Amino acid sequence: MNWLGLLVLLTVAILPTVAGMALGMWDNCGGTCGLRPMVSDSITPDYSMTRIVGGTDAKPGGWPWMVSIQHPRIPGTNHFCGGSLIRADWVLTAAHCFDVLFNTSMLYVVIGATQLTQPGPGAQVRRIKKLLRHENYERRDMSYDIALLQLSKPVECSPYIQLACVADPILGVSVSEKHTCWVAGWGATSAKNKSPSDRLQEAKVRIINLKLCNSSFWYSGKVHPYNLCAGYPEGSIDTCQGDSGGPLMCQDNHSDSWWVVGVTSWGKSCGKARRPGIYTSTQYFYEWILVHMAMNWLGLLVLLTVARLAHNLQYPCGGSCGLRAPQPDYSSVTYSYGNVAYDYGSTRIVGGVGAAHASWPWLVSIQHPLSPNLGHWCGGSLITADWVLTAAHCFDKIDNISMLYVVLGATQFTQPGPGAVVRNVKQVVTHPYYKRVDFRYDIALLQLDNPVQCSTYIQLACVADPTLKVSKLSNCWIAGWGATTARAQAPTDRLQEAKVQLINGPLCNGSDWYAGKVHPYNLCAGYPQGNIDACQGDSGGPLMCQDNNAEYWWVVGITSWGEGCARPKQPGVYISTQDFYDWIEYNMRAHHAAESAS
């Protein structure tokens, strides 16, 4: 093993190893998490600090990963938010806790206490070194309400201080309405009493079905897909002001361990009927947590080492991405108004024109020898020398990936030209939450058996990161070898391209458009009138927008689905790459690290 492999192994390769076990197993707390040594276990939302009503006093050490985030100028106990200790120097909490108290130099964290005025000998206090709020957090609707706090120095674990297990998407706890779980915090004990409790409170709650929670008589569509609802239909027991950031915890079905499955986010008042507490799902943000703690672990050296290893961008492709060869003048081409969609099969371009050679040099064709008509199956985007970004639904009917191959650098299949190369598929990584029934989390990564060499015909795509303002981009295009009409199911021999417009999400999800079927992490693109769209065979291909201040292009979406091809008010629906940027980073990084260490 070389030094680089060892370094990456120590920093990143262990991440997938512990996935499904616990984040807390990363450090010096006895190799365990989620254990309680001191306890024998057998409709306008109120977006203020959130909230335990109807609970009872917790025993000392009852929830040893619970922390109190405090500010010296807050009256009483100084408490204003809760959190969960997930590593000896990291706390998981809610982003909205810091809407006002954004100056972390005044904040401190109390760990190991049950009663704040009498914390006891097991309590420890730490200052805050760093605050990381989710980059997409929005106060107005509490979207992406999750944050990480890095402590000034690690805590020492004891019977009163233990690490929480964070529920992972694959091997961790399966959260459903069948689960009975617990909440805990120092928040207000009634809706009228806004003052925090001196003693930690706990309460048993039930997970409530998300569709029921989001129905018209409950929260009426205000709950996000990455939220959990917990409480009781009749109310009475709930979190309240001061419990924000604290954990929603469920016991493992097969052991004494407890999982933090949610972060207390918001709710309508406290303990109201049909107004349960709303929590940010830790499973949904598991990769975000992993990536951000890993990137801050050993500092800049590891960041640079791992980032280069994860991306490969800097090596074979001149340190650039999203650049195209000089293109012909399309000013004489007249485009009808149109849209981009998918018909819950493979996907497609209608109303486009033939693309020039090397015009979209990161576009790949995923092929299968048993697929009729040129072997083309799905599209994809080359994002590193050996990784392709595509759609998860492309592999619904593929039982054996060894039959697949990828064609890169070609524009016309029957005459691929000297710039084309072919690679076999080493592995496919689909999102663990992907569901065929409604195309949620329709994203996948495909690893090539050997890296490609970049050329005029083969370049890397730039993946839109969370800071890019996609809605401000206006020059957007789709491309693919899919069917050129809704009736023609066969792929086209020559790559097609079409200019499209990004369509406002609420409009696209309106009652006479897609009527709520579009997920928050989707993009809509096309035209209200139809006529231009993706079609069968374009699935997995990119939605691309040119940067407003440069020549390069961003892959902002992955062709996912749509109703028919090029129908009015039925535009193409794409997976936003911004929303899955951390997932992409984490999975490429983890697999490269494992390979380097072997």
UniProtKB/TrEMBL annotation:
It is an enzyme of class 3 (hydrolase). It comes from Zosterops borbonicus. It catalyses: Preferential cleavage: Arg-|-Xaa, Lys-|-Xaa. Keywords: Disulfide bond, Hydrolase, Membrane, Protease, Serine protease, Signal, Transmembrane, Transmembrane helix. One of its GO terms (biological process) is acrosome reaction. One of its GO terms (molecular function) is serine-type endopeptidase activity. Residues 1-20 form the signal peptide. The keyword Protease applies. This is Acrosin. PROSITE patterns: TRYPSIN_DOM, TRYPSIN_HIS, TRYPSIN_SER. Residues 52-294, 349-589 form the Peptidase S1 domain. Its EC number is 3.4.21.10.
